[in-house]
Amino acid sequence: MKNDLDANHPAKLKVFGTTRGARAYAIRDFHTRGDVPFEWVEVTDDEQARGIGLENMADPRLPVCVFADGSRVDSPTIRQIVEKLGWYLNPSRAEYDLAIYGAGPAGAKLVEDKDLHGS
Fold first, then answer.
1. Strands 39-42 and 64-67
2. Which residue in 1, 40, 52, 107 is a FRET match for 92, CA 20 to 30 A apart?
3. DSSP code of 86?
4. Looking at domain 13-84, what is its CATH homologous superfamily?
5. What is the dihedral of CA 89, 14, 72, 49, to 10 degrees?
6. Are 110 and 100 in contact (CB under 8 A)?
7. How does pLDDT run across 53-89, given as a tens digit for each residue?
């Protein structure tokens, strides 16, 4: 299954996993919400798992992410994926201004708390 891939937006990674896996779901959800092209490959049997270097479908290394450069990360966190894609940068300043757009009641509460505490 492909996640709306086309020639203009090639997949940045291929995710192998099972639909019942919480970590696989989190990875798919993160990329879908961010509109990031990826290819989802559901691992449906032990033979397919062995084909990607795992012991079986219950292998704790699932999900497996294979990146466009051919590198692979087993059972990655979202942060590991973001770092591998080069999207995470350490802040270059100690402080930043904050703008909240469309945050609704949560944003209003944050501004209210900031005013009360003088932060």
1. unpaired
2. 107
3. T
4. Glutaredoxin (3.40.30.10)
5. 150
6. yes
7. 999 999 999 999 999 999 999 999 999 999 998 888 8
